[in-house]
Every structure is written in structure tokens, then in C-alpha cells.
Amino acid sequence: MKTIKSMFAVILAAAFCCEIAAQGVHRENFPEGSYSPVTNINRNGYPRVLQDNSVMFRVNSSQAQNIQIDLGGNKYDMTKQEGGIWTVTTKPQVPGFHYYSLIIDGVSTADPASQSFYGCSRWSSAIEIAETGMSDFEVQNVPHGEVRTVYYYSKVDESWRPLMVYTPADYNENLQEYPVVYIQHGGGEDHRGWMEQGRTAQIMDNLIAAGKAKPMIVVSANSNVRSRNGGFGGGYSWQGMQTFRSELLENVIPFVEKNYRVIKDRKSRAMCGLSMGGGQSFYIGLRDPEVFANVGVFSTGMFGGISGASNFDLETEVPGILTDTKAFNKQFDVFFMSCGEQDPRIDYTRNIVKKMRDGGVEVLFNSYPGDHEWQVWRKSLHEFAQYLFK
User: Fold this and answer.
1) How many Cβ atoms sit within 10 Å of the Cβ of residue 29?
2) 263: how many CB neighbours lie within 10 A of its CB?
């Protein structure tokens, strides 16, 4: 039955494609003050962001019996109107990037009116709601760097694996060497997340052009690494990080340092990440100070706020952080943490930061409006990058 439903959804989605394409022929009378988000395929179509940041969706289908919009886990029932047009307007949304799906007669599918992004362990549609004052997240009239997808051979995974690498605008114009940030995605995402949803290139281009950040290379690896015993490395523990730690230290960094002009010392390397990647950065970055002198931890759930997180002991997980704090601080130029203010992880993060600071640990911290979402992580990178390599 599930297979039949899925096939039916595909057929309906194909029909929607034709109907949506036909919409472009006619001039729509859009709600006053609304705009088409950059995530739309047809900039003269739907969905539309209204003046209060609510979102109006419209789908044409005479065949479907029921259609819903699943926007960030909140489901909205669409209403069928004359001519097979389905519409719904959501509640106002916070600015930033939001995954969504169509649910057609019980089957969840991507919206052919939207670009697709890999997140939540699947290809999803998304809507980008603009935030005033965040022009650093947009393409500006400044020198632009490049993002390339390259492949390296992994001796851990025993396969060819992708990296996405940002190089600054002047990389091809000189022979200088650059510091490097190794940036990690969250669970259910991969190496594309930071470069596509996270807008790493736009952030770095604008910061570097304004003189707010040093020119640097940013490397995004896929940390979903299959270990040699057939399982995936994972879990918020030092042991659970070992598979990706081996991948990063034995494969990714040597490949980057062989193929790019980088400064090969700890003070010119940084590691940061969001959620799962924040946990990886915490463990690997802080327990390998001979490799990294700069660490950023964004929205990790390892301290609490997610299922399975409990009784986190700082000294056990990072030996010396509280018992030899002076030596710990000396090892790191930048130690930065962040979290969204509506994220269930926020109180646990604030508590662990307080415990660190009470113990003398030199840790920077900031929080931003938002839940466990990309706008928070973009702001985290934006701030972290400005501290680095000074």
C-alpha cells in the first residue's frame, strides 16, 4: 500500500509540475507587499512570503483528495477552491531558512515549485524568509571566492568521498598560503549543508571584503563515515567520535594540505560545526590541541536538551579543562560556543558555559533568536569567523 501511495504521489507531483509551469504564462495578482523567496524555482509563482512573514502556498490539482503543507514540523491543511486550486496561509514565521514538504493524500513529497536541499535525511523543499540587516548572508557587489567539489580517497571508508572547499577571491591571484576552517554539518545533512543552506561563501566573501575577517579557506566534509566494521561512527562520546576523527585527521586534512596552499600549523587551523558537527568539534577540536588552536561549537545537544543527553561531565570528557585550566586556555586562541534562544538546548548550553567560566575557562558565547535552524548557524559562523587568525 505504501508503494502504491508513493507512486501516486509521484504522478501527482508530475502533474503539479505541468500545472505550475502553466502558471508562469499568466500574470498573477499577488497579495500586496508579498514577495517570492529566492528558494522558489519560478520567481513569479508561489509560495509567497506576506508582509507579516506568514507564507501563502498555492497548489493546482484536481486529482488530490487532501493536501497539507508540513513547514518545520507544523502541518497546515490546504483548502480546495474552484478549479482545483488549493491554498493555505501559515502563521508568521521567524526569518531564515525553513524546510517544508507537501503531504499529498498522506504521502510526503517535495514541492516542485521549490528548489530542493538535502536535510533531515532526505531531499526537501525550503523557503527562505529574509531578515532585515542580514545583508552579509546575501550575494553582494564584492570580490567573490569559489566553492569547488573535490574528491579524495578515504582509507577509513575505503571509497572516494566528496569535499566542498571555499577559497577566497584572491586565492588564484597570488601564491600566499591561507589558514583553514574545517566546518561540520549536523545530523541528517552532509557536506553540502554549510555551502548551500549555510551560505558559507556569501558570508565569507562579505566579511573578507569588509576587512572583518582574514582571507581563509573553508572545508566542508561529509562526516557520515562508515567505519571498517560496517557501522557508522557516531554518538556524543569520545569513543563515538573516533571514526570521523580518523577520517578528518588521517584523510581530509592531509588531502587539503597537499592540494591547497594552506598554512600547516595548529594556529592556522580551526574546527567548528552545528549540532552533531558541534559535538564533533567539541571532542575532536578540544582534545586534539596539537591540531587545532580554534574551536567553534554551535547548538550541540551533548550537554542536554535532546534524548539520550544526560550527566555530562566536563572534566571526564575533556581532561584538564577544569583541573588544569591555565594550560587548557593557553592551547586555544579562540573557543566559541553558540545556540538559538528558542532551541531546547539553550539552557543546558548556558549552564555549561557558566560552569566553564566559573572554573576559569576562557570561552566566548552568544545566542541568537531562533530554534535549531540555519539562521542561527549562519550567525554563528559569521561571528566565529571574525575572531579567527588575528
Assistant:
1) 6
2) 17
